[in-house]
Design a protein that fits this description.
With about 260 residues, this protein is of the alpha/beta class. Helix content is about 35%, strand content about 25%. Helix 4 packs across helix 5 (about 160-170). The relative contact order is 0.17. The structure holds adenosine-5'-diphosphate (ADP) and magnesium ion.
């Protein structure tokens, strides 16, 4: 629910292209733990169908930022707005399940006692049984796992489980997908293929994606926009090519230096 205050709040982002509302708007997020600031005045915007990578070294506050956007962690200050609707604001906390946000976190395993179909259907709370089944089949076709529809997670490889997790997260048609290092558990041989495939599916589904990674290569490969984070702050934002070619400072250049 938009409040009057939000309408009058200063805009921290460049204006969106005419006619387009940002799917995700984050303004001035701030969070301390035990008096130690961990997220400092983080602002970003993600348009529908766009992938923004929150990129930075371990410990810089990426996961905390994502957790606040998801609603599983609270902010000390700032706003989270999805499709123009306030989710986090002073005195307001919309619970995670009502944010229209899909999550794929590093440690978000499949439910081992549920079949692949049941895992994918898990977040489908509305619709008839036939509609749910159709959506599950559609997504499993898309991740090329329809033959495993009645299998159990332990029968699948790591990469296959990852694709089921993606199907599960996308099943309820989330407005925003938050992904925290979703490929870090996969071995190198599989990773590139799964990244590309995931990107194709995300684009088809049209969600706004905020993907956290500490690997510049992953951000360069997947992002429409990179938000470079360090010490709790976003220090640079831009298209991958621009961030890579015109790093804001020495530390940013060093961070990208392994890439060639
Ligand atoms: P990243 O995902 O970039 O590695 P995190 O957001 O996980 O960084 O963590 C940023 C900092 O905040 C770390 O120093 C971490 O120890 C600290 N931190 C995260 N969550 C908590 C918490 N619940 N309590 C105390 N400190 C935390
Ligand atoms: Mg993290």
């Amino acid at each position: 629910m938009a409040t009057k205050a939000s309408t009058n709040a200063p805009t921290l982002q460049p204006p969106a292209p005419a006619g387009e509302t940002p799917r995700l708007q984050v303004e001035g997020l701030t969070r301390s733990f035990g008096g130690r600031p961990v997220v400092k005045d983080v602002s970003l915007t993600v348009m529908p169908g766009q992938v923004t990578c929150l990129l930075g070294p371990s410990g810089c506050g990426k996961s905390t930022t994502l957790r606040i956007i998801a609603g599983v962690e609270t902010a000390d200050a700032g706003r989270v707005i999805v499709d123009g609707e306030e989710m986090t604001a002073p005195g307001l906390h919309v619970p995670p399940e009502r944010r229209g946000i899909g999550l794929m976190f590093q440690d978000f395993a499949l439910f081992p006692h549920l079949s692949v179909a049941e895992n994918v259907a898990f977040g489908l709370t509305s619709g008839s049984r036939a509609e749910k089944r159709a959506r599950v089949e559609e997504l499993l076709r898309r991740v090329r796992l329809e033959r495993y529809i009645d299998a159990y997670p332990h029968e699948l490889s790591g990469g296959e489980q990852q694709r089921v997790a993606l199907a599960r997260a996308l099943a309820p048609r989330p407005r925003v997908m938050l992904m925290d290092e979703p490929f870090s558990g996969l071995d190198n041989r599989l990773r590139d293929g799964i990244r590309d495939e995931t990107l194709d599916i995300l684009k088809e589904e049209g969600a706004a994606v905020l993907l956290v990674t500490h690997e510049p290569e992953e951000a360069m490969r997947m992002a429409d926009e990179i938000a470079l984070m360090r010490g709790g702050r976003i220090v640079q934002k831009g298209a991958p090519y621009n961030v890579y070619n015109a790093p804001v400072d020495q530390a940013a250049a060093a961070f990208f230096s392994d890439l060639n």
